[in-house]
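Practice problem 4.
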């Protein structure tokens, strides 16, 4: 992995250096070409001024007149005026160092004709209509005698009516002022130094990153092999440190989940083994056939009780499995929530009297609301049954219902032994309360609060528990519901 990091970083650094060098050279070339065009245009304007000045000395023939005579075939360059213009252009070319300086005109055929280089004007490809409009024209050209690309400008000296002569100064200057061979030769040394520095930086960075990722990968392999205590180093303050922290959080949660599953299996095993042992022992006694009628009735009652206990445990396990897998639906109906929950609570009146526990039902008028009455009944039933189970004789269980801000608020409070503050965050775990507080009342599957939590979550509500050891416990459920008037 470190080798891959090293070569990848070195390749990125090398490509970056080449891109930067190439981009710098290209930008420099563009800048030089722009400067060359500016300079060539300035030279063309200066030469045009010299031509006009020379043409008007001592009243001799002007540039326009000479070009008209050349156009009409009534003069050639062998005349004094022609030679004078040729010498002027040649001197200007030597002074400026240009590759081409010429004087020409645009014929009726729309072709640019040059004095010193006949036949070349059309090959230059200038837009003669723009020249006639008085606009300078720029072209990149390649002259037969030149191996390099030239920047050429055609500069109209003035504009006359159609049919007249428009003298045009044409100047071509070398634009390939950058010697690429020399540039590349000069870049070898700094490029080599940069490559060495990049290689050193890539090696250091790849070693550092590789060692940290190797530690994270090693921890992941150990975790995959079953070592839930595996953790990655969290040093640093970057994305790898954040990834390591996330991995460690995940590993911690997996460890907690496995511990909870082990506790769950142990609790299930205990809750199954106890009634099965009882049933098995009494079945053997019945098989021996030496029991009188009273003992048989007592054994039948115990077997029925233990069978009911097993049935409740199995049903609660199946229900909880469906809830956790979300294999159930929420069916919304119009229901009088207060009356419905009061009816559910009243069904536990006989059970409360049998346990010698006072059951108070305090229900406010809620009116018709939209909710799932079956799931709501399950929540109220589980909380009420759980409260009765953990409330001692002469204790009190209070079930209250009210609505607030279009939410159903169900509260179940008991005067039982309460729950320790350290245990409150885990009261909704499977078997947790039953395992730690079974001494109060041994019956129950230990899954009631876990089922309630799953149902409340599925209905988009919240549930909280407040408890004071030795005083009692209060569970508060808040579930959203719409009033019938909102439909």
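Answer key:
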């Amino acid at each position: 992995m470190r080798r891959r990091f090293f070569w990848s970083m070195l390749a990125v650094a090398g490509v970056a250096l080449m891109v930067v060098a190439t981009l710098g050279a290209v930008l420099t070339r563009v800048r030089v070409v722009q400067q060359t065009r500016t300079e060539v245009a300035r030279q063309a304007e200066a030469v045009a001024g010299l031509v006009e000045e020379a043409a008007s000395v001592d009243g001799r023939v002007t540039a326009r007149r000479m070009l008209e005579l050349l156009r009409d075939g009534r003069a050639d360059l062998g005349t004094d005026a022609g030679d004078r213009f040729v010498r002027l252009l040649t001197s200007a070319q030597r002074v400026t160092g240009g590759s081409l300086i010429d004087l020409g005109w645009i014929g009726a055929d729309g072709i640019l004709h040059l004095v010193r280089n006949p036949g070349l004007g059309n090959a230059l490809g200038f837009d003669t209509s723009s020249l006639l409009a008085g606009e300078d024209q720029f072209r990149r050209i390649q002259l037969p005698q030149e191996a390099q690309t030239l920047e050429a400008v055609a500069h109209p000296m003035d504009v006359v009516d159609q049919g007249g002569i428009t003298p045009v100064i044409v100047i071509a200057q070398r634009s390939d002022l950058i010697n690429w061979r020399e540039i590349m030769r000069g870049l070898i040394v700094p490029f080599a130094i940069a490559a060495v520095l990049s290689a050193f930086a890539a090696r250091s960075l790849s070693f550092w990153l590789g060692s940290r990722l190797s530690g994270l990968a090693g921890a992941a392999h150990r975790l995959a092999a079953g070592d839930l205590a595996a953790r990655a180093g969290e040093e640093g303050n970057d994305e790898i440190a954040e990834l390591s922290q996330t991995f460690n959080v995940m590993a911690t949660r997996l460890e907690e989940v496995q511990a909870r599953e082990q506790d769950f299996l142990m609790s299930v095993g205990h809750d199954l083994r106890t009634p099965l042992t009882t049933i098995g022992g009494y079945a053997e006694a019945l098989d021996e056939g030496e029991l009188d009628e009273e003992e048989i009735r007592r054994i039948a009652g115990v077997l029925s009780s233990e069978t009911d206990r097993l049935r409740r445990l199995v049903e609660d396990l199946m229900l909880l499995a469906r809830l956790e897998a979300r294999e159930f639906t929420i069916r919304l109906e119009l229901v009088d929530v207060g009356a419905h929950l009061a009816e559910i609570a009243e069904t536990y009146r006989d059970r409360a009297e049998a346990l010698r526990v006072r059951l108070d039902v305090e229900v406010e008028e809620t009116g018709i609301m939209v909710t799932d009455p079956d799931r709501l009944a399950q929540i109220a039933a589980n909380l009420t049954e759980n409260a009765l189970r953990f409330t001692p004789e002469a204790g009190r269980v209070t079930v209250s219902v009210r609505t607030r801000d279009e939410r159903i608020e169900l509260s179940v409070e008991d005067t039982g032994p309460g729950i320790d503050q350290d245990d409150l965050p885990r009261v909704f775990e499977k078997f947790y309360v039953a395992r730690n507080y079974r001494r109060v009342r041994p019956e129950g599957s230990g899954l009631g609060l876990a089922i309630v939590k799953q149902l409340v979550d599925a209905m988009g509500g919240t549930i909280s528990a407040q408890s004071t050891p030795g005083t009692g416990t209060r569970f508060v459920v808040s579930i959203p519901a719409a009033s019938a008037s909102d439909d």
